[in-house]
Amino acid sequence: MLKIFTDVLDPFLWGLFPLLRKFEKKYKNFNYQFVMGGLIGNYEEFLPKNFREKNSLDLGNKILYDMYRATATITKMPGFKSVPELFTEDYKSSYPLDKYFLAFKEIDEENSSAYMRKILEEAIIFGKNIYDLEVEREILKSFKVDFDEFVFNYENSHDIFLANRMEAFDYRIKKLPGFLITENNRVLQNIMDFGRIEEFFLENLDLEEREENLSQEEKILDYIKTYDLVLKDEIKIVFGEENKLGDLIKDGKVKIEEVNEFKILKIN
Questions:
Q1: Three-state SS at 2
Q2: Which long-range contacts (C-beta less than 8 Å, at least 24 apart) are formed by 23-30?
Q3: Residues 10, 12, 15, 17: is their CA dihedral positive or negative?
Q4: pLDDT tens digits along 87-96
Q5: Burial class of residue 68, CB neighbours in 10 A (0-12, 13-18, 19+)
Q6: 8, 151, 204, 226: which sits with the fewest CB atoms below 10 Å from its CB?
Q7: Which fold has domain 216-267?
Q8: How buried is residue 75: exposed, middle or buried, by Cβ count under 10 Å (0-12/13-18/19+)?
């Protein structure tokens, strides 16, 4: 089993999804589990000391924006196009979002990864404040998850969240994301070269390839059909810089819809 120690607002998590999708499509026995390590206890931790007393929400959100922009140079997955308004007086920590994930997972573990991707899309692409429970209510509808049950789980998620954080501590995961192979206790963290993650998976997981005889064009079409939202940038990450997406667009099989400067692929 692959365990991924992360946090909803960890910029590497957003960049990790194309790689996870690539492995899901290529290997029939690839599976993983997110463990919430807790990244931001209070955004003021990231502020210079002379700004902490000023309680600058704008600066806190700007630092989050810069974190995503810097990480995108490593992952090649574009982050926020402008400074988000996620941190507020009521929400200064990423922990509530981690607890949202755990609350959802208690109800529908099978779709928990899709939920994680969805809330990040809503925040990064569509500019919504995913701390807002009314935003969560709409997201949950797409998964047919009961809102009241979700809220109940969230309000009682302290022990589960603590157990997740303690597991990260037990394996000495000091910097998110961290990757653990449970069969051999191999750990990877302190990622500087994103290609190392793929190597780590291949070195330590006993993966079985799907038996498919598809052209690259067919694989790209299948990839776009499989997921609710696929960015053009993902195709470069999954299929390489030189790929057949341009031919599919030229032939009218795929179209691009632009939302807030993000290019989303759709099947014609």
A1: strand
A2: 23/201, 23/207, 25/210, 25/219, 25/222, 25/223, 25/226, 25/238, 26/209, 26/210, 27/207, 27/208, 27/209, 27/210, 28/208, 28/209, 28/210, 29/206, 29/207, 29/208, 30/2, 30/201, 30/205, 30/207
A3: negative
A4: 999 999 999 9
A5: buried
A6: 226
A7: Arc Repressor Mutant, subunit A (1.10.10)
A8: buried
Q: Given the DSSP bridges, would you call strands 230-231 and 262-267 parallel, antiparallel or unpaired? A: antiparallel
**Residue 42 CB burial class (10 angstroms; 0-12, 13-18, ≥19):** middle
Task: Residue 30: count other Cβ atoms within 10 Å of its Cβ.
Answer: 18
DSSP 70: H
Does the model's pTM come out above 0.85? yes
Q: How far apart are the first and last CA of the chain?
A: 37
Q: Enumerate the domain spans of the chain.
A: 2-168, 216-267
Domains 2-168 and 216-267 share a fold: no
Can you list the residues of the chain whose pLDDT is less than 70? Answer: 48-55
Query: Are the beta carbons of 176 and 14 closer than 8 angstroms?
Result: no
Per-residue pLDDT reduced to its tens digit, 102-125:
999 999 999 999 999 999 999 999
Eight-class DSSP state of 43 = G
Sequence-distant (6+) residues with CB within 8 A of 11 are 67, 68, 70, 71, 72, 75, 79
Q: Class of 2-168 per CATH?
A: alpha beta
What Rg, from alpha-carbon coordinates, does the chain have?
19
Residue bearing tokens 């974190």: 67
Residue 182 DSSP SS3: coil
Question: Residue 173 corresponds to which amino acid?
Answer: I
Distances in whole angstroms, Cα of residue 21 to Cα of each of 28, 114, 118, 161, 226:
12, 11, 14, 26, 10
